[in-house]
Specification:
Blueprint: H1 4-9, E1 29-30, E2 32-38, H2 43-53, E3 61-67, E4 72-78, H3 81-84, H4 88-93, E5 98-104, E6 119-123, E7 126-136, H5 139-148, H6 159-168, H7 174-182, E8 187-194, E9 199-203, E10 212-216, E11 219-223, H8 226-232, E12 235-239, E13 245-248, E14 253-256, H9 269-274, E15 280-281, E16 284-285, H10 286-300, E17 307-310, H11 316-326, E18 334-336, H12 349-356, E19 360-362, H13 364-367, E20 371-376, H14 383-394, E21 399-404, E22 417-418, H15 426-429, H16 432-439, E23 443-446, H17 449-455, H18 471-474
Parallel strand pairs: 17-20, 20-21, 21-23
Antiparallel strand pairs: 1-22, 2-5, 2-11, 3-4, 3-5, 6-7, 7-8, 8-9, 9-13, 10-11, 10-12, 13-14, 15-16, 18-19
Helix pairs in contact: 2-8, 6-7, 10-11, 10-17
């Protein structure tokens, strides 16, 4: 979880330098995944496996904290789980039957060790580790207040605010102090926390970010997605409810409801974009929802072509649904190379253009001489779509249409998704026809908001159906955005670079 403080820091910074020719830079990014284990002698190994399953939620850093009955053991690394947490020597150092883990994708701000989670602090009651998915939208306001009263902050992550709020609480029990801290937060959070005798999970009052509970023998598991339960062989029990705090000890699992009951508003992007296709979110198969989106898209915006071609990997389920609905053959016209890191940088434009093809290659034998429709799950800045349309034309496609299995993204996110400024969102500044011209497609269409809700089993977006957090499409933000209009960062923030 990168933190809203970093997001503000980055407003005037340049985006990734190689964005112009790295197709995967023009994507929405989830900021992290969390995982926790209570009651297994293999807690560290299980957590590392769980983080592998959640790697799609964050690729810039990872970490695990364990408790062995006497002391806390911490490993945090920049990079992928497989690079930092796979060695037997690392797992061997992480002793104990309690563990929490985290994978992180930062926003445009810094990626530094001081922001890698889980974050850890020593309180009077003992050690406390926290892993956070989401964004606290009043973090700057809270931080200014805390610093004014003497707090010393060690990171630029909003997650650290949670530790300070717990530390300053005058409540007796750690759970009470934790809950008192939650009452001061705005925005989105799914938290997995570890003390010297308990595992704590919590979701914000409207449940924007996901968190599930599983069981493996006598051990309890908390995780961002069900796919992480599957990889360790755990049985899914239930989701942590919106506004719920679960406390797991050696005796039992307790449920606390510190907030007034209200309808859940989970993030719609979990279904359309972020969750792994084999996960179940809110009782719904993510894979099936995405196929249904493709079906609805084919009904709303049919296209007379020879082939349906997905943009891998996220466009594949929707493309299958589109193909089945309109009875047009599905073909893998674009091949993605999964083994390429960041595209190299070269000074010559023609060399940079070749760099695009390291990650995506046209299946020329399939494409040449055909009319095709490309299926993707979103258009953000439009640079990715423009390059892929060009790739298809270069491969000999006679017509290149594009269909997006999601409504157009017109508004930014402040709840844990890295989105560009609104002025950089293509749909916020151009009509659909202007977008079509920009990406040079023969036609362009998006799934409607009602169609998206229909794909999830609701008639349409109205007062009778459950409301999801869909502000990127509708501008309907479900919580206060206290810090969003802050123009200046606190002077206390040094933003020291780390190497």
């Amino acid at each position: 979880m990168a933190g809203i403080i970093e997001k503000y820091r980055s407003v005037n910074c340049n985006h990734k330098k190689n964005q112009d020719f790295d197709l995967y830079e023009d994507r929405l990014r989830e900021e992290c995944g969390v995982f926790g284990v209570f009651g297994s002698k293999d807690a560290a190994a299980l957590t590392a496996l769980g983080l592998h399953a959640l790697q799609h939620r964050g690729q810039e850093a990872c970490g695990i904290v364990c408790f062995d009955g006497k002391r806390f053991n911490l490993e945090r690394h920049l990079g992928l789980v497989g690079d930092g947490l796979n060695e037997q020597s690392v797992i061997g150092r992480l002793k104990g039957n309690l563990a929490v883990g985290h994978v992180r994708y930062s926003t445009i701000g810094e990626t530094a060790m001081r922001n890698v989670q889980p974050l850890f602090a020593d309180f009077k009651s003992g050690g406390f580790a926290v892993a956070h998915n989401g964004n606290i939208t009043n973090a700057i306001t809270l931080r200014e207040k805390l610093v004014r009263f003497g707090a010393i902050c060690q990171s630029t992550s909003d997650t650290e605010i949670i530790l300070h709020l717990i530390a300053r609480s005058q409540r007796k029990l750690i759970v009470e102090r934790f809950i008192e801290g939650l009452h001061q937060l705005e925005g989105a959070y799914a938290l997995v926390c570890l003390t010297n005798g308990m595992l704590i999970g919590a979701r914000d009052p409207i449940g924007i970010r996901p968190l599930v509970i599983g069981r493996l023998g006598k051990a309890y598991i908390l995780a961002s997605e069900t796919c992480a339960l599957d990889i360790v062989g755990a049985t899914f029990l239930r989701e942590v409810d919106n506004g719920e705090v679960v406390v797991i000890t050696s005796e039992k699992l307790e449920s606390h409801r510190p907030f007034p009951r209200c309808p859940a508003r989970p993030c719609i992007f979990e279904y359309t974009y972020f969750a792994r296709p084999d996960s179940v979110v809110g009782g719904k198969s993510v894979y099936q929802v995405r196929k249904n989106m493709g079906r609805r898209l084919a009904i709303e915006a049919p296209c007379k072509v020879d082939l349906v071609v997905p943009i891998p990997d996220s466009g594949i389920p929707a493309a299958l649904g589109f193909s089945e609905q309109c009875k047009i053959p599905f073909e893998l016209g674009i091949i993605r190379n999964h083994y390429v890191g960041r595209t190299f940088i070269e000074p010559e434009q023609h060399i940079r253009q070749l760099g695009v093809r390291l990650k995506h290659s046209a299946n020329t034998h399939i494409i040449r001489g055909r009319q095709i429709v490309l299926i993707d799950d979103s258009i953000v800045r439009g640079t990715t779509s423009k390059k892929i349309v060009s790739l298809m034309r270069d491969a000999g496609a006679t017509q290149v249409h594009m269909r997006i299995a999601c409504p157009s993204i017109k508004y930014g996110d402040y709840y844990g998704i890295d989105t560009p400024k609104r002025t950089e969102l293509l749909a916020a500044t151009r009509s659909t026809e202007e977008m079509r011209e920009f990406i040079n497609a023969d036609s362009l269409a998006f799934l409607s908001v009602d169609g998206l809700y229909g794909a999830m089993g609701y008639e349409k977006r109205n007062k009778e159906c459950p409301q999801l957090t869909d502000h990127c499409f509708t501008g309907d933000y479900p919580t206060k955005l206290t810090d969003i209009f802050a123009k200046n960062l606190p002077e206390q923030l040094s933003f020291l670079s780390e190497v």
